[in-house]
Amino acid sequence: MHYPLKYRRARTVLYAVALFWLWTWFGSAAFIASLFHSPIHAIIAMYALFAFVLLSIPVFLLALAQLVLNRPAEVHDGVVVPLDGQRKPSGPSPRMQRQAS
């Protein structure tokens, strides 16, 4: 069965991890350097950054696996065919008839 929401969530996670890695590569050094007026804050920031870097690797791999396992099926031509068990009755529902009287 195809789950489009799982595919979209996995794709969003991949984008978020890629954005985090770009920020780590380009902007995190300036962020940590701005914290050097307090060495404790800089140490905590470096520890958090290293923890998130290590955590982002398995998150990326799991999201990639979800992306591969839930890739969308072939594109249909947009025709909607109702299933037999899900057809709606053409008249008003019995509940609406009771409320009207």
Ordered list of secondary-structure elements with their pairings:
Layout: H1 4-26, H2 28-33, H3 39-69, H4 94-100
Q: How many strand segments? A: 0
Q: Hey, roughly how much beta strand do the residues contain?
A: under 5%
The low-confidence parts are none
H/E topology pattern: HHHH
Specify the number of helices. 4
**Shape estimate:** elongated
Structural class: mainly alpha
Structure, described:
The protein has 101 residues and is mainly alpha-helical. It contains four helices and no strands. The protein has one domain. The radius of gyration is 25 Å and the shape is elongated. The mean pLDDT is 80. It is found in: Membrane. Residues 82-101 are annotated as: Disordered.
Keywords:
elongated, 101 residues, mainly alpha
In short:
The chain is 66% helix and 0% strand.
